[in-house]
Amino acid sequence: MSVSKTKTMLRWAGIALVSLGYYLWLGVASTSFGHIAEKESVIGTGPVSLEYHRAMMDAVMQATGVVFDAASLGFLICVPLILIIFHKVR
């Protein structure tokens, strides 16, 4: 295999590894929604109290914030890593 093909394979393998890490990071962050679904399965179909509704909305907002923070931080880390991979492996 030529050097050019080897470098291309290394470059894309590095980018795939960074992308996989990013998606795993988001997957771990999205597990914060698990407790919400667990609480909802316990409640029946009847009316819910205002306090419970507000608590659930706060939980959804916090879980969304966690995923948003993970996505933002992951983006800020992954884009420079991909650019470094393109720069170093030529």
Could you explain how this protein is built, in words?
The protein is an all-alpha fold. It is built from three helices and no strands. It has helices spanning 3-29, 34-42, 50-88. It starts with a helix and ends with a helix. Keywords: Membrane, Transmembrane, Transmembrane helix. The chain crosses the membrane at residues 12-37, 66-86.
What's the layout of helices and strands?
Elements lengths: L2 H27 L4 H9 L7 H39 L2
Helix pairs in contact: 1-3
Keywords: Membrane, Transmembrane, Transmembrane helix
Give the key terms.
single chain; 90 residues; mainly alpha; 0% strand; elongated
Kindly provide the radius of gyration, computed on alpha-carbon positions and rounded to a whole number of angstroms. Answer: 21 Å
- Tell me the total number of β-strands: 0
Q: What fraction of residues sit in β-strands? A: under 5%
Provide a count of the helices.
3
Which regions contain 5 or more consecutive residues with pLDDT less than 50? none
Q: How many separate domains? A: 1
The shape, in one word, is elongated
State the end-to-end CA separation: 16 Å
Major sheet description: none
Structural class: mainly alpha
Q: What is the succession of H and E elements? A: HHH
Helix content: over 70%
Give the mean pLDDT: 88
Transmembrane segments: 12-37, 66-86
Keywords: Membrane, Transmembrane, Transmembrane helix
